[in-house]
Write a structure and sequence with these properties.
The complex is a heterodimer of chains A (193) and B (433).
Chain A (H helix, E strand, L loop, with lengths): L4 H4 L2 H11 L3 H14 L6 E2 L1 H5 L2 H4 L4 H6 L9 E2 H9 L6 H4 L12 H12 L6 E2 L1 H12 L5 H15 L7 E2 L10 H4 L3 E2 L2
Chain B lengths: L1 H27 L5 H23 L2 H7 L6 E2 L5 H4 L12 H14 L30 H42 L4 H21 L2 E6 L10 E4 L5 H7 L5 E5 L3 H13 L3 E3 L1 H4 L2 H13 L6 E3 L10 E2 L5 H4 L4 E8 L15 H9 L4 E7 L11 H16 L2 E2 L13 H16 L5
Parallel strand pairs in B: 2-9, 3-6, 3-8, 4-5, 4-6, 7-10
Antiparallel strand pairs in B: 8-9
Helix pairs in contact in B: 1-7, 6-7, 6-9
The chains are: A mainly alpha (193), B alpha/beta (433).
Main location (chain A): membrane
Subcellular location (chain A): Cell membrane; Cytoplasm; Nucleus
Keywords (chain A): Calcium, Cell membrane, Cytoplasm, Lipoprotein, Membrane, Metal-binding, Myristate, Nucleus, Phosphoprotein, Protein transport, Repeat, Transport
């Protein structure tokens, strides 16, 4: 039953998630109750269908790719821990986190991890390169039927040309730097405390 | 033998009490004031419980856990701003940021799906089913809760089941008998009497306390009454204050028996499932109904599904194409005494009714609103939206553009296409599209 939700989340698990993701205790509790309400199968994991049932996500042109980001390679279920790990990419970077020691593990919400999230939306075959084909697929998802193949092709060519530095006609993660973009702001959601 | 005799005696005393104290008063529409006393005690108890809970739990965490606070603060800026560019700018790799953020926000918190599950309460109302954040707080509170369980299940439940049983059987028998009479004013009068009496009994079976506001705007004959929809008992709530011709699909089971009996006495409009799809037929039959000014106002719930008492969703335009005067009605339940929302994908009708009968009470406000009609140059969709806004404002409900049908169906592709079109315009400019 849904009403038992918060009791099922063990304290140790909550502590671990807190450490890994940086979310606060009450944020985790609230997100857990969201997780259980999305979990229509009531088996402690979410499937792709569970995500697709959110109308505002279903109408998102990149909805399918975003949902994909929650599922590790070859799996079709995600548990609460994995769910939180993906959400953590969108936690804003707080002031005290910026000056963190460089030796510790990089927090999930770092600028580079945020960029990685976006990069993986393009890089479907996970070869750490955005090929022309992969770029075209994402473009097509975003524009639908409104732009001709020819026009879209020239957009893809121009984009690759601008970003490509080593001449392999693809965009690697090092070329996907987006220096001028305020990644911290654009890839952050204001989670309430 | 003695045991049987004793049981018989208890049963007959029980029925006499029910008859004398509840049935007869409801038949005449008077109140003995018992339910008022019950409500007063209830309000006091819940107030006391709230104070205890606040004492027992540090204030801060109560606030944090309460549902009134969302999880995130959404970035409502439009696409143009989110993409940081003007129309006609070029595609940039960072454009996916905007869609990712929107998508993630929807995963964490969305406007629609939460409306299809029970509303969360700010403070616990001593029902176990709503106890999400409050577990053991104090001994006294637990004792009161145990007492509450005993009262609800051992006193109220049997009483309410008896009442509901009597109410429903009276309705079926009464309407069937009245249905034998020839059409005429006597039949109409008797039919209304039966409907009203039985609804009053059934409302008492739920300890319903209903406050009607602006009675001068009560829906008139020959009009269409539209209301927001939380539960099947909306019908009871409204009929207690005046009869309506109902529109709906023919059901099976208990509902079917009631429907078939009712239609004999009163011209309700029931459709077979197959007929429901034929929009022209539906419109035609409704038009015929309102053309006859002597017939009762039609009652329609244009959302087409139950929403959890916090918002009003899209009004289907069908009811607004028929013409005639629309009498909007806003219904808002007080969630403190029991959750009236019917989560039909989780509970069937009977278990829903049992939940209702083991709640504290059903308390709700009904606002009759000034009649509205379609303005010149306004199409049915615009008119539907105008009525929806009016109801949302009056009932203090959130207004949502989404279709309540999303509870079961997938969202239409046109919404996604709309987004794609907007985005395309931005990266290619107006000229080429």
């Amino acid at each position: 039953m849904g009403s038992r939700a918060s009791t099922l989340l063990r304290d140790e698990e909550l502590e671990e998630i807190k450490k890994e993701t940086g979310f606060s205790h009450s944020q985790i509790t609230r997100l857990y109750s969201r997780f259980t309400s999305l979990d229509k199968g009531e088996n402690g994991t979410l499937s792709r269908e569970d995500f697709q049932r959110i109308p505002e996500l279903a109408i998102n042109p990149l909805g399918d790719r975003i949902i994909n980001a929650f599922f590790p390679e070859g799996e079709d279920q995600v548990n609460f821990r994995g769910f939180m790990r993906t959400l953590a990419h969108f936690r804003p970077i707080e002031d005290n986190e910026k000056s963190k020691d460089v030796n510790g593990p990089e927090p999930l919400n770092s600028r580079s991890n945020k960029l990685h999230f976006a990069f993986r939306l393009y890089d479907l075959d996970k070869d750490d390169k955005i090929s022309r084909d992969e770029l075209l697929q994402v473009l097509r998802m975003m524009v639908g039927v409104n732009i001709s193949d020819e026009q879209l092709g020239s957009i893809a060519d121009r984009t690759i040309q601008e970003a490509d530095q080593d001449g392999d006609s693809a965009i690697s993660f090092t070329e996907f730097v987006l220096e001028k973009v305020d990644v911290e702001q654009k890839m952050s959601i204001r989670f309430l405390h | 033998m003695e045991g049987a005799e004793l049981a018989g005696k208890i049963l007959s005393t029980w029925l006499t009490l029910v008859l004398g104290l509840i049935l007869l008063p409801s038949a005449f529409g008077v109140s003995l004031g018992i339910s008022e006393i019950y409500m007063k005690i209830l309000v006091k108890t819940l107030e006391w419980a709230t104070i205890r809970i606040e004492k027992g739990v540090p204030k801060e965490s109560v606030l944090k856990n309460s549902a009134s606070v969302g999880i995130i603060q959404r970035d409502e800026s439009p696409m143009e701003k989110g993409l940081s560019g003007l129309r006609g700018r070029d595609f940039e790799l960072s454009d996916v940021f905007y869609f990712s953020k929107k998508g993630l926000e929807a995963i964490v918190e969305d406007e629609v799906t939460q409306r299809f599950s029970s509303e969360e309460l700010v403070s616990w109302n001593l029902l176990t089913r709503t106890n999400i954040n409050f577990q053991y707080i104090s001994l006294r509170l637990t004792m009161v809760w145990v007492l509450g369980v005993i009262v609800r299940y051992c006193v109220l439940l049997p009483l309410r089941v008896t009442l509901a049983f009597i109410g429903i059987s009276l309705l079926v028998i009464g309407t069937t008998l009245v249905g034998q009479l020839p059409d005429g004013s006597l039949k109409n009068w008797l039919s209304e009497l039966v409907h009203l009496t039985c609804c009053r009994i059934c409302v008492r079976a739920l300890s319903g306390t209903i406050h009607y506001h602006n009675k001068q705007y009560r829906p008139q004959k020959g009009g269409i009454c539209v209301a927001n929809h939380t539960s099947p008992i909306d019908v009871l709530i409204l009929t207690t204050d005046g009869c309506y011709a109902m529109v709906g699909q023919v059901h099976g089971g208990l509902m079917g028996i009631i429907q078939r009996a009712m239609v004999k006495a009163c011209p309700h409009v029931w459709f077979e499932r197959s007929e429901m799809k034929d929009r022209h037929l539906v419109t035609k039959r409704l038009k015929e109904h309102i053309a006859d000014k002597k017939k009762l106002p039609i009652l329609i719930f244009p959302e087409g599904t139950c929403i959890n008492n916090t918002s009003v969703m899209m009004f289907k335009k069908g009811s607004f194409e028929i013409g005639g005067t629309i009498h909007p009605v806003a219904i808002k339940y007080n969630p403190q005494f029991g959750d009236a929302f019917w989560n039909s994908s989780k509970y069937n009708m009977v278990s829903y009714l049992l939940r209702m009968m083991t709640s504290w009470a059903i308390v709700c406000d009904v606002w009759y609103m000034p009649p509205m009609s379609r303005e010149e140059g306004e199409d049915a969709v615009q008119f539907a939206n105008r009525v929806k806004s009016a109801i949302a404002v009056q009932g203090g409900l959130t207004e949502l553009p989404w279709d309540g049908g999303l509870k079961r169906a997938k969202v239409k592709d046109t919404f996604k296409e709309e987004q794609q079109k907007n985005y395309s315009k931005m990266i290619v400019g107006n000229g080429s599209l």
